[in-house]
Hints:
Structural class: alpha+beta
Number of helices: 3
Number of domains: 2
Mean pLDDT: 94
Distance between the termini: 21 Å
Shape: globular
CATH architecture of the largest domain: Roll
Order of helices and strands: EHEEEEEEHEEEH
Amino acid sequence: MPLTPFHLAIQVRDIDEARAFYGVKMGLPEGRSAEHWIDFNLFGHQLVTHLNPAIGRHGKVAAVANPVDGHGVPVPHFGVVLNFADWQAFAERARGFVEEFLIEPYIRFAGQPGEQGTMFFQDPSGNALEFKGFHDIDSALFAT
C-alpha cells in the first residue's frame, strides 16, 4: 500500500510564534490559515498548529520521557522519516535554528537492525519533534 500524507493538529501557545518557528526557521511552506490556526507542509504532510491560549505565553505543553538507547525520549512527539542524505542535510539546517536539542543528531542502534539517524527538539510551545533518517527506509523502518 503506498504511503499517503498524514494530518496532525497540535496545540501552540501563540500563532505568530508558531508561524515564525515552523514557517521561517524550519522553512515549511504555509497553506491555509485563520486567526487561530495555520496549515504547514511538513515534508508533504499536513501539520496544523492550533492556538490554545490556556498554555499561556510562556507555558509549554506537558511531556514525559522514556529511555531509548541511553536517551530520554520525550512523549508525545512527532516528526518525519527521511532518507539518510535528506536527514543529514536537515540535521545541518536544524543546527542553525534549534537553540537547544533535546537529543543532538546522532546514529541510534548503530550496526543493528533499524540503524537510524535521529534528533529531537522542541518548538517554542514545547511540542517535541523527532526526525529520523534511514539508508533503506523500506527494510529498516520496522526492522526488529
